[in-house]
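Technical annex, item 7. During the second reporting period the consortium partners agreed on a shared format for inverse folding records so that results from different sites could be compared directly. Each record opens with the tokenized structure and is followed by the designed sequence. A conforming record, contributed by the partner at site C, is shown below for reference.
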């Protein structure tokens, strides 16, 4: 759910107000293809030899583009694959007819190409078929031609084979030619071999479920048996004969996919299934991979998600050993990609155990890995900040590079700045903690294989995104920059530090005031409020320009990151555990009262609230549990947490049978009769994330309680309600709703 924030842009973006008349800013312009800053490059990838970084750059509509590269020596972009060739090898996502498939490709950043190990070839997936492109001859050879599409292709480490998925089974093919080999033969709509299902992709951030062994002789893959998972009907009402697609979707308390790891030879043969120790609680296998040929590692997560175990397994004998167990009583264990194997029987492991996410260095017997559990050598990072990403490890220099919520000024280990992401480095012996990034804002680093260069994706609240090629501890050279927004004269954002409802905890907020305001000003709050996400960040957010439009229409806009949101350590993030809505609303209202006191021009009688996804849920909860808001808009809201998926919901709320009162009290459906203010509820009919069922249950409860509301449905649209025309329609609808119910100084008479 958290990743919808990148689609919605809940944070306003700002620049100092210009003296001259600003360029008009419209809903149509900010949601047009490319927006006002231009379409960002896609699929930034380093060549395996580390000499070049490549990326796809397209025009605003996404119809025309080329594959570019930046050479370390030249430092400037040049064409790697021409527009004419790329049009057939990596066509744009836009023309994909199926809304759900188009959102999957964009939401999960499904790559259209990858480098071959020799750095001289590229593998493309075009319209379901695989092509091998030679850089030297600028020639493409088609590898597959079956009617069914091939998915998630991976070239073997030795560069001789490619493995891929088709119809829920694994296949392999020699790049030099020949017939493909079907490696598994049990795949079906209810049994996936090496394929990622919806809930693992969405809530565990799994992007692939099969991996080559280092010697290219075998493939480890995950089998997902989904036959016991209930199906949810997604209906397309637009054709003359409506169609129904049943999505396998485990809701809170439902059976989850039954999973196990299999090993199959590259040439085919019988699958060998791995059995992890008898005491392991094998509800989820969120990560697995190879230690070396014949030896795999497997992470096992229990259903309560408060215990994560790391196992190591000998694929020949089937013997296994638990290396460590990570437990978080009263909270949860966050699954991430920060486990990293190092040479010499050592590895890095993330943990929340001291109250913040930090990195720990472990060692195990490299000669006999099954001999004993891993030994903790040291806590590598320490301080009042969260490690958010493990970027790279430089073996030669024994240096770890990682992203963190560390302050830009002063000692990076002494203070946190949860509104930013900085790139830091530390030696493996725990010394030499230093900052690599040099600007305040949001940094995401993509390192070259040797970890001496990286691509820095940077933005700040007043700076649209840019991409730079950087040398570690050296200069950065920009190679892509978003279009300037200086001509729009955007209003300046105010960052605030407030107190939570407990009177002690600091919470962060941002406030955007109208550039010209006379008399009292109506205020709209725009919460997200849920776990794993933040809205108050020193980062650029293109679609957050909607706040600027609201400000020009005379509204003030407030964002608050209440307790329960991300970036603030275990105690802060787990405050709303097992009682969604209660803590979040208390903090939002406490922040609202402080802002109203600080800015007396804000009208306490004209308050609005709107949000999307968890923010939509927050809007419904606020309007059924307080009388503060005259109007609200809930987009794609969860209305009963029993309707949402098992992994996300149970992580924070527990199983429904174990927390019946928590589920009941958190549901706006249970309090429909308490609705105050004028509500607009919005949903896409093909939403496969937060199902339309949520809104249907909510409006049914409103009708039964005699409460009036407005409803807006978008046929065929998924959770992001994407598309320039659709977004323009939706945001005009939101603007008009608030202008109708908040712009009049005297509250409108309630409907009977």
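Designed sequence (site C submission):
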């Amino acid at each position: 759910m958290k990743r919808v924030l990148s689609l919605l842009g809940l944070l306003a973006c700002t620049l100092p107000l210009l003296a001259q008349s600003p360029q008009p800013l419209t809903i149509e312009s900010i949601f047009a293809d490319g927006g006002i800053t231009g379409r960002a490059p896609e699929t930034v990838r380093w060549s395996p030899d580390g000499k070049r970084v490549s990326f796809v750059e397209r025009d605003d509509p996404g119809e025309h583009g080329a594959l570019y590269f930046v050479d370390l020596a030249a430092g400037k972009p040049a064409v790697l694959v021409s527009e004419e060739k790329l049009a057939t090898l990596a066509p744009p996502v836009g023309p994909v007819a199926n809304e759900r498939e188009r959102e999957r490709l964009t939401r999960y950043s499904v790559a259209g190409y990858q480098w071959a190990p020799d750095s001289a070839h590229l593998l493309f997936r075009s319209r379901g078929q695989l092509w091998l492109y030679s850089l030297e001859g600028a020639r493409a050879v088609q590898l597959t031609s079956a009617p069914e599409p091939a998915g998630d292709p991976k070239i073997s480490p030795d560069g001789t084979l490619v493995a891929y998925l088709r119809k829920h089974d694994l296949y392999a093919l020699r790049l030099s030619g020949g017939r493909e080999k079907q490696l598994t033969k049990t795949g079906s709509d209810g049994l996936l071999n090496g394929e990622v299902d919806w809930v693992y992709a969405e809530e565990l951030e799994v992007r692939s479920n099969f991996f080559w062994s280092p010697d290219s002789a075998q493939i480890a893959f995950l089998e997902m048996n989904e036959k016991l998972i209930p199906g949810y009907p997604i209906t397309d009402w637009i054709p003359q004969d409506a169609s129904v697609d049943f999505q396998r979707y485990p809701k809170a308390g439902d059976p989850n996919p039954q999973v196990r790891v299999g090993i199959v030879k590259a040439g085919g043969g019988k699958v060998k299934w791995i059995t992890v120790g008898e005491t392991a609680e094998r509800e989820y296998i969120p990560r697995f991979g190879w230690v070396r040929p014949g030896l795999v590692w497997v992470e096992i997560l229990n259903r309560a998600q408060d215990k994560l175990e790391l196992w190591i397994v000998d694929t020949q004998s089937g013997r296994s050993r638990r290396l460590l167990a990570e437990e978080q009583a009263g909270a949860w264990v966050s699954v991430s990609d920060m486990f990293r194997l190092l040479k010499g029987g050592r590895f890095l492991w993330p943990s929340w155990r001291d109250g913040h996410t930090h990195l720990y260095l472990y060692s195990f017997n490299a000669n006999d890995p099954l001999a004993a559990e891993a030994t903790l050598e040291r806590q590598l990072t320490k301080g009042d900040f969260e490690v958010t990403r493990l970027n790279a490890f430089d073996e030669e220099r024994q240096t770890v590079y990682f992203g963190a919520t560390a302050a830009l000024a002063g000692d990076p280990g002494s203070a946190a700045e949860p509104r930013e992401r900085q790139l830091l480095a530390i030696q493996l012996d725990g010394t030499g903690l230093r900052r690599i990034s040099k600007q305040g804002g949001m940094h995401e680093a993509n390192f070259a294989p040797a970890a001496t260069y990286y691509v820095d994706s940077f933005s700040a609240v007043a700076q649209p995104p840019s991409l730079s090629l950087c040398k570690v501890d050296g200069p950065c050279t920009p190679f892509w920059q978003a279009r300037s927004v200086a001509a729009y004269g955007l209003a300046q954002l105010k960052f605030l530090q407030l107190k939570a409802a407990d009177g002690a905890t600091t919470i962060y907020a941002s406030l955007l005031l109208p550039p010209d305001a006379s008399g009292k000003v109506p205020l709209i709050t725009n919460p997200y409020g849920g776990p794993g996400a933040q809205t108050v960040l020193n980062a650029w957010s293109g679609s957050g320009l909607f706040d600027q439009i609201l400000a020009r229409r005379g509204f003030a806009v407030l964002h608050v990151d209440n307790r329960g949101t991300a970036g603030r350590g275990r105690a802060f993030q787990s405050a709303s555990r097992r009682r969604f809505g209660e803590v979040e609303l208390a903090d939002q209202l406490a922040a609202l009262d402080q802002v109203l006191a600080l800015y007396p021009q804000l009208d306490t009688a004209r308050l609005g609230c709107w949000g999307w996804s968890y923010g939509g849920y927050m809007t419904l909860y606020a309007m059924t549990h307080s009388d503060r808001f005259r109007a609200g808009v809930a987009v794609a809201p969860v209305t009963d947490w029993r309707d949402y998926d098992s992994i996300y919901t149970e992580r924070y709320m527990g199983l429904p049978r174990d927390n019946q009162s928590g589920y009941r009290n958190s549901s706006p459906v249970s309090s429909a009769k308490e609705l105050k203010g004028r509500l607009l509820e919005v949903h896409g009919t093909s939403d496969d994330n937060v199902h339309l069922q949520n809104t249907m249950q909510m409006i049914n409860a409103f009708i039964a309680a005699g409460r009036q509301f407005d409803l807006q449905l978008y046929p065929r649209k998924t959770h992001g309600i994407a598309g320039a025309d659709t977004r323009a329609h939706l945001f005009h609808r939101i603007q008009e709703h608030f202008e109708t119910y908040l712009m009049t100084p005297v509250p409108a008479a309630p409907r009977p």
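Residues 415 and 573 are 18 Å apart (CA to CA). Confidence is low (pLDDT under 50) at residues 2-19. All partners now use this format for quarterly exchanges.
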